[in-house]
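Case 522 in the screening queue. Each case pairs one protein sequence with one candidate compound; here the compound is manganese (II) ion. For every case the pipeline is the same: read the inputs, emit a complex structure as tokens, and attach any notable structural observations.

Predict complex for case 522.
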Amino acid sequence: MHRSLIAIALASAAVVPAFGQDNVVGSGILPSAATNSATRPMSFAQSVPTKGALVIPMRSATLPAGAVDATTAQALDAAIAAAKYEGKEGSMLSLRGIGGYSRIILSGTGDEGDRIANIRNAAGKAGQDLRDEAQPIAIAGGLSADEAAAAAFGYALGQYRFDRYKTIDKKAPPANPVTVVTSESGAADTLWKTRHAAMAEGVALARDLATEPANVIYPESFVERARTAFGTTANVKIEVLDEAAMRKLGMGSLVGVGQGSRRPSRLMLVEYRGAGTGAPLAFVGKGITFDSGGISLKPGAGMWEMKGDMSAAANIMGAVLSLAKSKANVNVIGVAALSENMPGGNAQRPGDVVRTLSGKTIEVLNTDAEGRLVLADANEYVIANKKPAALVNMATLTGSIVGALNDEYAGLFSRNERLAASLLSAGTATGEELWRMPLHKNHLEDMKSDIADIKNVVEGGGPGASLGATFIGFFVDKDTPWAHLDIAGVNWADKAGPVTPKGASGWGVRLLDELARTYRVE
Ligand code: BES
Ligand code: ZN
Ligand code: MN
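Case 522 output:
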């Protein structure tokens, strides 16, 4: 080897990160240290810029008053008539060469339903369309403070991109600012800064974590990424249990899932206290950084999608980040139950029996029903150590929920009517909607094991999502208000939605943020 090549090889060898206690070097390929995408700075103003790209939310075929000057309005009216554009919800008309503007996008809100949601969505669609636009961007059209903040938020969610592994023809993502025009610019700016900006950051964190491949995000690196995101945010306390600690406590169900992997499991707890000493709301998420199925191996086609099997844990971290960074007047604790489910030589086998923290025993009949196994121990740990006022689980738990609800709704399972009602209305308010699914006492009967307290699957199937929920609920004491959200159908967008580009959706950041702010602890 040439001398300088040796020098380069040695230099890069020196920066190979330590991969945990086993010193796993994996493929030896260094994960990119490049930052992900740039985001455009957001601000609010009272007058409409006369150049750059302009987005106008449209209720109908009529231009909102004051969006543009008279000459531009005349040209736009002609274009609207020629295109028979009606401003319908979700419709867009993109125009070039009008006035001094590089582009004008008319983005339809329609005239029905929730005005704020419609504006957020119209801005989100425009944000996706303008992802490569080099010019500064303005959004204008007689917006109130609430509407302007919603437009900024929609734009922020829509512009999301994940660029860090592209090296060919890589263009720097445009970072020119977005200006949202409103006569109430001060109020809009306050709304944005005190709530929406943090929520957008939470969603981006969740999407980043879920999009990263499993050779980059594994339990330990998930913890480090989340830790970095929280930084020195006030009133946040982070605790992490490693495998030795969990073994010592007897968390055999969680540790069992990760024991076929060279990447050791972790339990990460992020507590945000914005409301003094009251009992926190606990959000406990499945964080399987890769789900191969384990010894009950999954088929190869589409298996890559299981890099996103930690979405729930990521979304929960995003929600807690949003609440903490916006200094919300709430107490919450976000928990990530982190393991990699792999078929290694030390992997657990179908038929193995494991014991949870509380001493309950589980017969693991299928190692691919692993989400419920990590959540069993995580729930017991949180209830015993944090005494939460209520506990919400979130998990990409079953293919069964995808069959039932696809990507329109996440499945809601709950034994508590008040918590269920709060979740349903938070879903309606945020557009991250839930559909209530059944829990029946027969389900628990069906899950009785011949040799242990419970088995993790029912052979022959049955109502898969309900059985999974029932299993998780078995590890939550009856006095703690409890709900479980099965997000296997909503965590990944196969096609773009109004505020969700194709890919990891960060689903539930907004829902849990809203729940924490509206749920009244009894
Ligand atoms: N992570 C999967 C569920 C999943 C499936 C998420 C499709 C996203 C898309 C989960 O761990 C799993 O493997 N579930 C099994 C459970 C079965 C073995 C009882 C399933 O749904 O098939
Ligand atoms: Zn899984
Ligand atoms: Mn699985």
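Case 522 observations:
- The chain has two domains: 42-182, 199-518.
- The longest strand covers residues 281-291.
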